[in-house]
């Protein structure tokens, strides 16, 4: 056989031996193959809502394939009732204990960027967080920057009057056993205009009363699981009198009976009662909570339980 034909034969032989990874989900995926389609992100990373849809790898992952590694109870939060979503790998961040996978979730009317966290050794799912989408209609530029830690810094900026840049920024890190927690909360906007950052948003909410309760976007209480079924972590924010009086408190309350919880903290004179009835929670200030609110308003409200968001 001529030498040239021999080399052509070898190339064809090796090409035939390379089996293409099935990303449809029709067959089981090896974790090694699944992770191999994500390019490595080694340094700082910055992307905006205006161009993040264009930076994903061309490999298209089907829902059945992604659910071999990410539980369907998690993916449904991002796809909702969408019947034919697709997932595109953006990149991976490899740390000693975790692997972070950035994924674009392509739906009919929008694209979302989500980060999934896997255990570095077992590749078992640990956590997920929504980062960006391309459907927000406001005057802000929304962006994501990731450092080596990694901290996921979500920012919104716009140029206001006198060319002054107005911004709000929130930084999130994954903590083992807890999930994503907020570590940076910075803004130069007035509280009535800036986004309210919920520091416990991604914590588990499996217990009976764990949920979001609200009057509107700026008057709400989030309740998440505590260390046991009778203890809850909460974040409460309200704005009254056209936002001239604002109250905010993050803490822990304990259930005293089937429907009544109470917040107290050593050294803090503030005491708050929580009463659960049907799909509502009543919040009543019974101690001195002036350190957590304006002087002309009180923690005294009722909120309605919300259905879980798809994000």
Indicate the topology.
Layout: H1 3-17, H2 31-36, E1 45-48, H3 63-66, H4 72-79, E2 86-94, E3 98-106, E4 111-119, E5 125-133, E6 141-146, E7 152-159, E8 165-175, E9 179-187, E10 211-216, E11 219-225, E12 231-240, E13 245-255, E14 260-265, E15 268-277, E16 280-285, E17 300-305
Antiparallel strand pairs: 1-6, 2-3, 3-4, 4-5, 6-7, 7-8, 8-9, 10-11, 10-17, 11-12, 12-13, 13-14, 14-15, 15-16, 16-17
- Using only C-alpha atoms, the radius of gyration works out to 24 Å
Query: H/E element string?
Result: HHEHHEEEEEEEEEEEEEEEE
Overall tally of domains: 2
Strand % is 35-45%
Distance between the termini: 61 Å
Instruction: Going across the biggest sheet, name each strand in turn.
Output: 10-11-12-13-14-15-16-17
Which class of secondary structure composition applies to the elements?
A: mainly beta
Number of helices: 4
Residue runs with pLDDT of under 50 for 5 or more positions: 6-10, 12-17
Outline the structure in words.
There is one protein chain. The chain folds into two domains: about 20-195, no CATH class; about 205-310, Lipocalin, CATH 2.40.128. About 10% of the residues lie in helices and about 45% in strands. It is built from four helices and 17 strands. The chain has helices at about 5-15, 30-35, 65, 70-80, and strands at about 45-50, 85-95, 100-105, 110-120, 125-135, 140-145, 150-160, 165-175, 180-185, 210-215, 220-225, 230-240, 245-255, 260-265, 270-275, 280-285, 300-305.
């Amino acid at each position: 056989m001529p030498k040239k034909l021999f080399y052509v034969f070898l190339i064809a032989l090796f090409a035939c031996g390379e089996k293409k990874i099935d990303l449809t989900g029709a067959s089981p995926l090896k974790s090694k193959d699944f992770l191999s389609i994500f390019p490595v992100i080694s340094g700082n990373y910055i992307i905006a809502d205006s161009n993040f849809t264009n930076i994903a790898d061309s490999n298209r992952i089907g829902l059945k394939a992604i659910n071999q590694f990410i539980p369907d109870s998690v993916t449904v939060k991002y796809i909702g009732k969408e019947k034919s979503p697709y997932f595109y790998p953006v990149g991976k961040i490899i740390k000693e204990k975790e692997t972070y996978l950035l994924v674009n979730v392509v739906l009919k009317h929008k694209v979302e960027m989500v980060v999934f966290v896997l255990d570095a050794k077992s590749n078992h799912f640990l956590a997920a967080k929504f980062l960006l989408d391309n459907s927000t209609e406001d005057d802000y530029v929304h962006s994501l920057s990731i450092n080596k830690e990694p901290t996921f810094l979500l920012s919104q900026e716009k140029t206001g009057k006198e060319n002054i840049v107005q911004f709000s920024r929130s930084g999130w890190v994954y903590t083992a056993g807890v999930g994503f927690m907020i570590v940076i909360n910075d803004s130069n906007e007035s509280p009535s205009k800036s986004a309210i950052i919920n520091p416990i948003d991604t914590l588990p909410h499996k217990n009976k009363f764990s949920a979001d309760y609200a009057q509107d976007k700026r008057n709400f209480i989030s309740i998440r699981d505590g260390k046991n079924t009778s203890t809850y972590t909460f974040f409460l924010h309200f704005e009254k009198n056209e936002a001239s009086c604002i109250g905010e408190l993050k803490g822990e309350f304990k259930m005293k009976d089937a429907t009544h919880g109470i917040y107290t903290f050593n050294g803090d004179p503030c005491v708050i009662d929580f009463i659960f009835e049907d799909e509502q929670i009543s919040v009543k200030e019974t101690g001195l909570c002036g350190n957590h609110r304006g002087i002309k308003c009180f923690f005294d409200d009722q909120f309605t339980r919300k259905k879980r968001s798809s994000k």
